[in-house]
Amino acid sequence: MSDVKKFLYVNRKQPYGTIYALESLEVVLIGAAFEQDVSLAFVDDGVYQLTKGQDPSGIGMKNFSPTYTALGDYDINKIYVEKESLEARGLTIDDLQHLTWEDEDEDWAEKDSIRVVSASEMAEIMDQQDIVLSF
To answer: Virtual CA dihedral for 106, 107, 108, 114, nearest 10 degrees?
Structure first.
């Protein structure tokens, strides 16, 4: 039996105006650096964290959204976005950043990291984790 715990970081808050999104991203990167089995989930207003073209300069905050493109470099390739949360906000997968990872088992083929899942699928994913942290 593996000692590696499965961690799911659930992102529920908008990307700016609170520290939750940035803190979650920092904790995720630290966890991956320590070789945890890391997954991310984006639900409710958390789906806005992955949208393209963010510009928080009007509220005096730094745009940290480009950091999400580095997740694949940390072997973080299980990124789940709840379909119902997207739909409730008038968004589709096309409104989200294109996040990828390279599969070394398939000659470094580039693959999509984001998987849009239903609320019931998200519940199953959460149930399969050893640790779920909500931000």
So the answer is: -20
- Mean pLDDT for back-to-back runs of 10 residues, the chain (135 residues): 85 94 94 90 98 93 92 94 98 97 90 97 98 96
What is the C-alpha to C-alpha distance for residues 29 and 36, in angstroms, rounded to an integer? 10
Structural domain includes residue 102: yes
- Residue of 96, 46, 108, 45 lying closest to 72 (CA atoms): 108
Pick the closest to residue 113 from 64, 60, 70, 77 (CA basis): 77
Question: Looking at the 3D structure of the chain, how many domains does it have?
Answer: 1
| pLDDT given for residue 94 in this prediction | 97
